# Entry
Amino acid sequence: MTEISRRQLVRGAGGLAVVGGLAAACGTSSSTGTSPAPGVSAGGPKRGGNFRLGVTGGGSKDIMDGQNIITKPDQARLITAFETLLLFDENYQLTTNGLAESVTQDNPKQYTISLRQGIEFQNGKTMTADDVIYSFQRIGTKAYGLTGYAATATMDIAGMKKLDKYTVRLPLKSPDATVPQTLGSYTFNMVPVGYKAYPSPQIGTGAYKLKSFAPGQQSVHERNPNYWRSGEPYFDTVTITDFSDSTAQVNGLLGGQIDAMTDLPPSQVKVVQGRAGVLISKTGGWLPICMAIDMPPFNDVRVRQAMRLLVDRPGMLEQVSSGYGFIGNDLYAPFDPGYAHALPQRQQDIGQAKSLLKAAGHANLSVDLHTTDGAAGMVETATVFANQASAAGVKINVINDPNFYGNQYLKLAFSVDFWGTRAYLNQVQQGSLPTSPYNETHWPPKSGTGSNFESLYSQALATTDPAKRIQIEQEMQQIEYNIGGYIIPFFGGLIDAYAAKVKGLKPSKGTLNLDSFGHGFRTIWFG
Amino acid sequence: MNRLRVGGVWSFILRRLLLGIVVLILVSVVVFLATQALPGDPARAILGRSATPASLAALRRQLHLDQPAIEQYWTWVTGLLRGNLGNSLAAQEPVTTLLGPRLVNSAVLVAIAAVVSIPLSIAIGSWAAFKREKAFDLVSSNLLLVLAALPEFVVALVLVIFLATTVFHVLPAISTVPPGSQPWNNWTALVLPTLTLVIAVAPYVARIMRASMIEVLESDYVEMARLKGLPERTVLLRHALPNALGPVFQVIALNLAYLAGGIIVVEYVFNYTGVGSAIREATFNHDLPVIQALAMLIAAVYVALNLLADVATILVTPRLRTRL
# Structure
């Protein structure tokens, strides 16, 4: 199977269809449900075994909900039992290998979802249009606070209509070309009518059924013998254990008590290599240095430009992430087909930065940079940047505030935050509009250059011709590149480790660890 | 005068118990004030990025933050006395349900470590004192000094490298207790954490035992016992050991109390499902009810162990016993 970009995919379908017709583009394998796991060698995968995964970042806050996550172990557990309509592949390209056979954009304000027929939930009930409508309704209920809620803003969920047993019409309140990306995001899962979060029974369409779960400790998942992709999954059971620390994880892996672990610290890569497998995935997570464009001193565009010129990006990547990742250009969504690759790579230029600061009247700038231990590397990014900026005589006081996400969050002039990877327009919706839940930079400008950003966004959402949409996206990125409030020094990666006997793992650009946890623990096996 | 005056000892225990209660009340005030001293609004600090006006209001009600401080303190303390420790904010279940199994797990670990390390260190210390300046004494004293200087996590990691991951693969490197099972169900997993704790505690106890024993062996009454022609065995076990134990009980109590808090490092390294990891996590999550419960628990362990040590010291020391 070759890489299918969203653009090709749309072209293949022609006209208004967005992802319909993909099955044709990549052969019949996906529709028959018999496709072997990617990377299957001549020997082929083997059945059996208990796959033991160690995950850090969890605790008593752990939950099990087919449409919601709080901690990292939640991601691993969610993906054992629940599946999305569309599926991102390991290159972060959208495919129709999920529960839907096709998702077609009939017009800018309407999609039609056709389900793959004959898929059963783990309790034997056939998945139908009713379940899809219930799933959307559940995510769209604000009071539940589910992960996908923000992305349903444009959907007219109350107006959803069952056309037949396997077909659903999704009308929109306003045009939104990013709906397919939303349908592929890993928490936008389909659950049966009446579904509730743990401790209610966890019934999905996924490859494993939940057997036991103790938040903050351990969960056990049993093979779903009725799984719709024939042959998969290969393990009899999957055991997911919470770890408080990566030292114990590494010891457990090397001692043979676990078969795979998430988030191997970069400093441990050399220790583990040769004794176990190390999976390095360039996933595009990012830690922006955020300048609020309406607060002094960053309300002067020259100061923002100077700050962007102070960063030694390769140095930052090396120091913060031990070189695992790739440098950034102050633009997000690097895997989006519309990413502005053509814009010149920004490089450190102390002289230019100094003269910009001088012109702005901030020759001896001293400013507080707020951050917290919210995600690995945030504090380090702030510290390294402060160090690099001192070369230009700029004094940056790093404030590591445990209460960073309190009252003052999103009201700070200068801060370091964290994001996962998204498609461009989805990211704009999350962080770069007046209505975004997490707009650290107070983007876009209210007047002058760039004040048309929001109208460009609406225009892009309403544009069904992908080539034209990408043109608009690039125009938006040009503005952000010139006068935006983000400094994006680099995109990080995920480093995971696994025992030598685990087969089938491949580096992935997806948001989730371990090749999206071995595509939901179904494309990996014990060799 | 050698007879135990029961009334004296009992009134001593009673006095110490009352004193212990006073200490715990003071601790509860400090713990409560620390909660109040959180910068800004505790509810805001706890909820962080996910705070909404509705969830803030709900949490303030749940924590009784809408009441005056005195009233809040009273609600909390009376709840404590009734065994109602409140609900964990992170886990959304009663603190007792959350901590109960973990308490058992940690207590098992500390108990095994105590049962192994106390007799072992008393034996090593006594024997070293008896064989003073001989080979055993020199080797054990220096070795114990080295071990005492090593932090627990270094000891733990060296043990893991040696016995679990790199040199030999004879023991599991991690000791997770699966939910629903008991620590002793998988005893091999207990070996490394226990060994680490034993190595953390034994050197101190053994060294104080040696010093105490040497002092006693040089005393007049031991000299007297020997001159009377008593067998050396009787001299050691009946005359020297009981007198040498007094100061050692204090050190044992201090070390066990230290374990109650210090176990956090060992649980961390071995991913052991106990109180230590609960402390770490509660702090990380700003889970106040859990932090408060654990602070009170550890204080109570300190008070209880000190009381036990004092009573034991008095019982083995005639001079103190008769003075009551």
Remarks:
- The mean pLDDT of chain B is 84.
- Chain B touches chain A through 37 residues (CB under 8 Å).
- The radius of gyration of chain B is 24 Å.
